[in-house]
Amino acid sequence: MNLPLIGVSTSVTVDKYPERAYINAAYLNAVQQAGGVPVPLPPQLGPAARAELLKRLDGVLLTGGGDVDPARFGEPPHPTTAEVSAARDGLEIELTGWAIEHHVPLLAVCRGLQVLNVALGGSLHQDIPSEPGSPLDHSQTVLQGKARNITTHQVKVREGSRLAGILGALEVDVNSFHHQAINRLGRELTDVAWAPDSIVEGVELGDGARFVVGVQWHPEELVGHDRAARNLFAALVERARAGERLRPALRAR
Ligand SMILES: [Mn+2]
Known about the structure:
The chain has 7 helices and 13 strands. By secondary structure, the chain is α/β, with parallel strands linked by helices. A hairpin with a 5-residue loop joins strand 11 (189-194) and strand 12 (200-205).
């Protein structure tokens, strides 16, 4: 049996020389541990390369990274806006639409959840610390002694949701590295997990036929000790493997 190919979006340097595409190894490790083959998708890929890769991908993982351009949801940028890449936003929004249209399973992590939301017409809180009523720290740092695999806040998951079924838990302890968060939900998206301050930490597509799941935390950093985190990647790879058999027409194009 072929191992499913999981397209993994990459970060890109912004205004730095030399220009680079890069990706945290934790994503590559998590996909491989789950039985998938990660295929990095840097924004520097041109249309021909993208089109050729899309014929072969069985699943998509949208990764964390810099801010989504607030112009994508019709707002001027907050002063804290950082690391905006038009090329990356463009590639990931295109990938999201493609995955949804073709029923290719999609797991969206952190920035990925925000991209998913914006791609479907939603908007973001641009900077949680600037919003009233959010006392929780969603931006843990190593300087505080909080390495990337340390959990710093709890998340409650809606009973009966797809995400709850995948995680195998209604409460999970998570890490947190975001200053943006979902504001207005995108079309067809349902919020299914929340931090104690009501920040949305998990979404899924209302249509149960398609595997489209987003989490605001970083499960790829937790797979070493957290079964729920491993379950997320296992579910993505399992669905990708199933889809591989169900989409012969698409693959032959
Ligand atoms: Mn958080």
